[in-house]
Design brief:
302 residues, four-stranded mixed beta sheet, 22% helix
């Protein structure tokens, strides 16, 4: 059915096969080509000039609006993108004179379509007088037999636009752990601290992070230890918005005791956990130059 409607629309663009009186019925064609992945009508001048070609005395009988996206990208996302382009074109026509707002309008979102591409096509049929004959021949036949049935499928049951998920997020949280310090003597510590940074989602199933981690290691029998690291991680995820993750994190920083004696410390850890758009919880275990780390992190996403 979609192909039949497309063939009908192309035939209207090339030849007005239903017109008996070409002096009374006219057609005007306008196109809007969008940047890849965009739906905003940034440059209205071209569309305005196209609409200004319609004489003010002509009566607008019918407006066809067809939107589409090219073959690049996810099918579902392209269906949503074509719907947004259709809405943008309709909103622009609503800013024009009343004869555009009150005209009978048929709208169709084609989704991915290699013929139409990343465009919105607008076809406007006008007449110099209100003629029942023209109404029957020019309007009712195409709308009744082809357009209305297709519009019922595509427009009355539109694809619901999903909320856009950003490709990055900031996070801040706390770390509770049992770390084993191994520089002077091997001793277990209760460790607590802060972690913060930013995560990047270049793809739905991959994320990266950079940030800072500061810890205080406490043991009543030996010196308290402080550690501070710059961290960088890479993970596989089940979803960008919500799901499980697994990956590794590198650590580079310093370790210091109560006597202000400090030394370089660095290493890494493996991590596994769960996250959604507002928070994440993860468990990590690893090794640095002076510590064995095993801890739980709870973070909020900003």
């Amino acid at each position: 059915m979609k192909m039949k409607f497309l063939l009908f629309f192309v035939s209207l663009l090339s030849n007005n096969i239903y017109a008996k009186n070409v002096d009374e019925t006219k057609k005007y064609k306008c196109e809007i080509e969008f940047d890849l992945g965009k739906f905003e009508i940034k440059q209205k001048t071209g569309l305005e000039k196209c609409l200004q070609k319609i004489p003010e005395n002509d009566v607008i009988k019918l407006i066809y609006i067809i939107s589409s996206a090219n073959q690049i990208g996810d099918v579902k996302k392209n269906e949503i993108l074509a719907q947004k382009r259709l809405a943008a074109a309709r909103a622009f026509l609503d800013t024009q004179a009343d004869r555009f707002k009150l005209a009978v309008t048929e709208e169709l979102s084609m989704g991915r379509n290699h013929v139409l591409g990343k465009k919105v096509h607008i076809l406007i049929l006008t007449t110099n007088k209100l003629s029942p004959e023209i109404r029957t021949i020019e309007i009712e036949k195409p709308v009744e037999k082809i357009v209305e049935k297709k519009v019922y499928i595509e427009i009355n049951k539109p694809v619901e636009a999903k909320k856009e998920i950003p490709n990055y997020s900031f996070f801040v949280g706390s770390r509770i752990a049992r770390d084993i310090f191994m520089k002077d003597e091997i001793a277990p510590y209760f460790s607590y601290g802060l972690v913060s940074g930013v995560q990047f989602y270049p793809h739905d199933h991959v994320k990266y992070e950079i940030g800072l981690n500061a810890n205080q290691l406490v043991n009543d029998d030996v010196y308290s230890i402080s550690t501070g690291y710059v961290l960088a991680g890479a993970y596989l995820t089940t979803s960008k918005s919500e799901g499980f993750f697994i990956g590794v994190r590198g650590l580079s920083g310093i370790v210091a005791n109560q006597k202000q004696q400090a030394d370089y410390d660095g290493g890494g850890e493996g991590r596994i956990g769960y996250e959604n758009q507002s928070m994440s919880i993860g468990f990590g275990i690893g090794r640095t130059r002076y510590t064995t780390r095993a801890g739980l992190e709870l973070a909020l996403k900003l």
